Amino acid sequence: MIDIHALHKSYGDLEVLKGIDLTVKKGEVVCLIGASGSGKSTLLRCVNGLEVYQGGAIRVDERLVEAERKSIRDIRTRVTMVFQRFNLFPHRTALQNVTEGPIYVKGEPRAEAEAYGRELLARMGLADKADVYPDRLSGGQQQRVAIARALAMRPEAILFDEPTSALDPELVGEVLAAMRQLAEEGMTMLVVTHEMGFAKEVADRVLFMHGGLILEEGPAAQVLGNPQHERTRDFLSRILEHG
Amino acid sequence: MTNFLTDAQAYLPILLRGAATTVGIAFCALVIATLFGLVLALMRYSGNPILSWTSRSFVNVVRGIPILVQLFYIYFVLPDWGIDLTAFQAGAIGLGLAYSCYMAENFRAGLEAVDNGQIEAAQSIGMGWGLTMRRVILPQAFRTVLPPYGNTMIMLLKDTSQASVITVAEMTFQAKMLAASTFENLTVYTLVAGLYLTLSVPLFILASWLERRFGKK
Ligand SMILES: Nc1ncnc2c1ncn2[C@@H]1O[C@H](COP(=O)(O)OP(=O)(O)OP(=O)(O)O)[C@@H](O)[C@H]1O
Ligand SMILES: [Mg+2]
User: Fold this and answer.
1) Do residue B126 and residue A153 have CB atoms under 8 angstroms apart?
2) Closest Cα partner for B75 from B165, B161, B171, B158?
3) Stated pTM of the model
4) How far apart, in whole angstroms, are the C-alpha atoms of residue B28 and residue B21?
5) pLDDT digits 0-9 by tens, A4-28
């Protein structure tokens, strides 16, 4: 459902993505790992049309992702994104954050959107937080609201950019549990993460990125348990050292 | 003192009529300044180079010319080009344009204070520019903008006195006429000062309430 072919992306003279090929099939969970600066966020942002790219092509359901075309809006309702820093709308309650897209972008009737919004919040374990503003929620709760907001668009896939990196360690588990549940329900997910435990248990495939290229990819057990590339081994041993 | 009181009684109705005009012109100018200032700020913020340049140039030109000169220009020069305005209209438009630039700078600061992640979050659920503005950015910018907005209102109220030079019959104009015909400078200008203060006090209270309610926590 997401097809990336020979993707090149530069910021000025700095080439950040140097030819990425990647296909994510419906229902698949793909985890992206790699050192800081390797281009993981940039890749996700290109898929969401938040960045323009200079070469290659990204297709979502056969439709070309072009950041500067109106068509990108429709594509974004099919592939939504969850950010490292949550980016909840601070002036809206948890429920309003979730219903904003369905009501104003998709034009769903308010009652219907709110019913589904409450259902999603309940699924995220936040049934009692619907009318609370984000500044009254913990980081983990905020991120779960953000996931509900992404789900409310009834997307076919969700992109996650280090969804637990901004969280206190004791709050990481609740967000990962919510994501795991999504994966079990068959959601297509492309996840940038440093949570190796999550990748090992949930990912269908793991990709290791380095210097703007995908150096290694395969089933989680293989890439994480028996990496072929020296740089992957380096990276994994450093991650394990630091916890 | 009794003299002052009897004089005051005689002058007050005239000055109050002037005060009504002052409030009227301040209100009209505020509406113009707010709407046009918002347009200028949005043009600057849009990221479109032509719109942004136009807005910036306009703001710099207008800010670089004294309000008095702008008022003279609108009232005395525009008629040569077939644009005839009453003194009140010229005053309201002149002050409105001059203040739209202050407003634009306020609004722009408010818009730019909204975190970039908010824009991306809005886009990531498919919002276009208009929806992102209306539902996400403007409501947040609104809060940052309100405290300086209150202060600008006070400045605008006082600057309406400049419209007296193009014969708008507002309070300062009435005072000048009264003082010139009665020579009671002390009485007249004391009254006027008092009236301006009286008009400003509600705005001071409003501004400090806005500051407390929406200012930096
Ligand atoms: N807006 C930008 N302008 C210029 N350079 C950028 C920009 N965004 C990212 N870069 C550069 O692109 C490279 C890749 O950045 P990216 O954020 O994709 O890395 P990452 O793999 O997500 O890293 P991290 O793990 O730290 O999030 C880095 O060298 C970064 O400095
Ligand atoms: Mg990143």
Assistant:
1) yes
2) B165
3) 0.83
4) 10
5) 999 999 998 999 999 899 999 999 9
Residue whose CA is closest, atom 8 of ligand 1? A42
Among B125, B142, B143, the strongest candidate for a mutation testing the A interface, having the largest count of A CBs within 10 A, is B125
> For residue B106, how far is its CA from the centre of ligand 2 (angstroms)?
33
Residue B140 with chain A: CB contacts under 8 Å: 90-91
Residues of chain B in contact with residue A87, where contact means CB-CB under 8 angstroms, are 115, 117-118, 120-121
Helix (H) or strand (E) holding B4: helix B2-45
DSSP output for chain A:
-EEEEEEEEEETTEEEEEEEEEEE-TT-EEEEEE-TTSSHHHHHHHHTTSS--SEEEEEETTEE--TTSTHHHHHHHHEEEE-TT----TTS-HHHHHHHIIIIIS---HHHHHHHHHHHHHHTT-GGGTT--GGGS-HHHHHHHHHHHHHHT--SEEEEESTTTTS-HHHHHHHHHHHHHHHHTT-EEEEE---HHHHHHH-SEEEEEETTEEEEEE-HHHHHHS--SHHHHHHHHHHHHT-
pLDDT at res. B215: 66
Helix B138-159 to helix B2-45 angle (10° resolution) is 140
Cβ within 8 Å, pair A50-B124: yes
Phi, psi of A25 (to 5 degrees): -90, 160
Q: Which of A17, A41, A192, A193 to mutate to test the pocket of ligand 1 (most atoms within 8 A of CB)?
A: A41
Q: What confidence tier does B216 reach under pLDDT thresholds 50, 70, 90?
A: low
Residues in the ligand 1 pocket, defined by CB under 6 Å: A 11, 14, 16, 34, 36-42
